[in-house]
Amino acid sequence: MKLGVIGCGKMGTALIQGAIRAGVVASGDVYGCDPYYKSRENFAAVTGAHVSADIAEIASASDVLLLCTKPNDVAAALATVAEKSSGQPKLVISIAAGVTLAALESAAPENFRVIRTMPNTPALVGHGAAGYCLGSRATGADAKTAESLLGAVGLAVQVPERLMDAVTGLSGSGPAYIYMVIDALADGGVRAGIPRADAVRLAAQTVIGAASMVLETGEHPAVLKDMVTSPGGTTIAGVAALEKHGLRNALIEAVTAATLRATELGK
């Protein structure tokens, strides 16, 4: 696979670092393009890939394109790729927020297959969560390619496009909610006398541990909650306080609000 990356910012760089580390692609088969010199230089330094400021060069060298531009730049980038591809079919995987499969397919030549994805920022540290959906011409092999690239930096889940806004509201925006939870837990620790730095580390590690338990055991979160909630104990006192102040409903409403906003931005 010859992989071109259009947009060598943090997310594009993180995805390629993960793919190279996992053996999905060799650094010598990756070609990065970005108009900004510093972004290109950083991309080359951390991935060992080829870089260029010329999209045309990337288009001719690649059979898979990872499109990491801003949403407003997608159509222009695809137009340039189409012009310089000499009729060669390509797979385009777009991480541009809010850009639909229909928009991608209308901007690309008929022999291009497209996939839309929504990764999140923890991909930068190898713990991302991404949803992706297939365009009308994408194949099962294309889905495996997307899964291998996204899965190299975390979890990748295929969904129908109608759920992509919900993915944005849940895992795309979700890290911000969890940072607020960590900050609040740490504040509680500080209130109880724990030094700030220790409280933050304990809170963050607790979130990592709890999340790992869900993923690795396969148990429902409620079952795991019950495992640490002894009758008349400390945990049930804390859980009761959370229920009283509406933590569960607040998080549900956050995902719902972010999903609705993602839908508005996509129109």
Automatic annotation (TrEMBL):
InterPro entries: 6-PGluconate_DH-like_C_sf (IPR008927), NAD(P)-bd_dom_sf (IPR036291), P5C_Rdtase_cat_N (IPR028939), P5CR-like_CS (IPR053790), P5CR_dimer (IPR029036), Pyrroline-COOH_reductase (IPR000304). It is found in: Cytoplasm. It is an enzyme of class 1 (oxidoreductase). Residues 2-98 form the Pyrroline-5-carboxylate reductase catalytic N-terminal domain. It comes from the Bacteria. Its EC number is 1.5.1.2. Residues 161-265 form the Pyrroline-5-carboxylate reductase dimerisation domain. Belongs to the pyrroline-5-carboxylate reductase family. Catalyzes the reduction of 1-pyrroline-5-carboxylate (PCA) to L-proline. NCBIfam families: proC (TIGR00112). This is Pyrroline-5-carboxylate reductase. It comes from Luteolibacter yonseiensis.
